[in-house]
Specification:
Distance between the termini: 10 Å
Largest sheet: none
Shape: globular
Helix content: over 70%
Strand content: under 5%
Number of helices: 11
Order of helices and strands: HHHHHHHHHHH
Structural class: mainly alpha
Length: about 200
């Protein structure tokens, strides 16, 4: 998935105080972090702020951080936690008695590629509808598994779940998608075509 040795070396250099190494980590991960965050909010400025806050926090606490052989997973999980805190804060500020249900929006980054493929153009809205009809956690597990190419173990780490729960969630998501087998077949064809 990622050039682990390169990222581990960058992580080690950053922990030793090399600001350029942190810059490389930020540049290499910005797109995946941004795309992942768009699944929870469309507020681009909030996403940018959360990513910036994440890297500032890392810099300020670099000496206390453990060595991480899974840099991308660590960054995704940290961003997810930070984003949830800020979204919860915003919701509380908007209404103290509002029940928090964080959205998992349909802004899936490979959609732009789907639009470019003429044979799928007519079904774009049907594919979006199919994905957004899934419960939010199922949408998230589909995104992490098929769009980001993460393993079950990596997804479990990011979503704070055990491996079996992630497998069950993914299985339920696929069963739900199979209820409309033609569109699901097209969706998985495109997802596996990317992999």
């Amino acid at each position: 998935m990622e050039p682990k040795n390169d990222y581990i070396a960058l992580w080690k250099s950053f922990q030793e105080g090399d600001s350029k190494a942190l810059g490389h980590l930020a540049n290499n991960h910005y797109k995946v972090l941004f795309n992942y965050a768009t699944k929870f909010t469309k507020d681009r400025e909030l996403i940018k702020d959360c990513i910036q806050d994440l890297f500032l926090f890392l810099w300020d606490h670099r000496e206390k951080l453990q060595s991480s052989p899974f840099v991308t997973i660590y960054l995704l999980k940290s961003l997810r936690n930070n984003l949830f805190k800020k979204l919860n804060q915003e919701k509380r500020n908007a209404s103290d008695d509002l029940d928090i249900d964080l959205p998992f929006t349909e802004g899936i980054s490979p959609e732009s590629e789907l639009i470019e493929l003429e044979m799928f153009y007519e079904n774009e809205s049907k594919l979006k509808s199919l994905l957004t009809s899934l419960p939010k956690r199922q949408q998230e597990v589909i995104f992490l598994k098929f769009y980001e190419g993460l393993s079950i173990e990596e997804i479990a780490e990011i979503m704070d779940m055990n491996r079996q729960s992630v497998s069950n969630l993914l299985h339920r998501a696929i069963l739900n998608l199979k209820s409309n087998w033609f569109l699901a077949g097209q969706l998985f064809y495109v997802l596996y075509l990317k992999a």
